[in-house]
Known about the structure:
The chain has helices spanning 22-35, 51-56, 91-96, 137-149, 178-189, 195-198, 203-211, 215-224, 234-242; strands at 9-11, 40-47, 63-67, 80-86, 102-106, 120-125, 154-157, 166-168, 173-175, 225-230. The chain has 253 residues and is of the alpha/beta class. The chain has one domain (9-242): TIM Barrel (Alpha-Beta Barrel). An eight-stranded parallel β-barrel has the order 1-2-3-4-5-6-7-10, surrounded by four helices. Helix 4 links the parallel strand 6 and strand 7. It starts with 8 loop residues before the first strand and ends in an 11-residue tail after the last helix.
Amino acid sequence: MNPLFVNLVDDAGLFPPTSLTMGDALARHAIDRRIGSDVLSHRFLCPTSRLDDLRRHAPGPLRLGLIVDTHSPPDLDGLDVEFVEVKHVPEPAASWAPATARVFVEVSPAALPVHVEPGIGLKVRCGGQTPSAFPTTHELGAFIRFCTHHAIPFKATAGLHHAVRHPDPSFGVYLHGFLNLLLAVCAAVDDRDPVPLLEVCDPHELVGLTGAVPVDTARRARASLISYGSCSTSAPLDDLTALGLIEPVGARA
């Protein structure tokens, strides 16, 4: 598989707009793990406020990304925490995060430049519930350039529902495509402007550009863009399959 797509999508089924119940989210996650697509990271994103709910469902071994929405340090006993994602300065989370977990701090592109401690990553929101939650291509491009220039790994969240950039009449904005995002990071790690890649809306053009990315560039891009959270785990696979960029993974529930 193209290294651009390996371990790309974190499971954010608990979050809007899908907002699955804990039981339904874990059941879907179990199906995804059984099917085993390499595009999915098989990492389950869970707010710290819902860890008790998670434990009540006794899911067994689970690779977790914690979204911090509580003030007190959570009980992490018996949990395999790979990521800790916070909305503000990371000191509180950094004090209790497991040594093996990576910490990511959410920032707005408008807040750049920011000081980032060594070992800390950033997180960018690519959409939300209002038009203002969607950064422009220039704002997102500036964020990508900042991270790649300073060798800061980052994650993305929200708004990346499909592979290709497209208009959303209900919001009156264009929605960013996750394939656009990947190619924009490829451009940035090669010292090119990422903004033109974020603005491409032609699926055929994006497919051609994807096929032209050298393997080394793809790997360096993915060392920068770690993953993105998606409330749907089927849509990314369906889009990449329809574009001919991955093989079908078989029947899905």
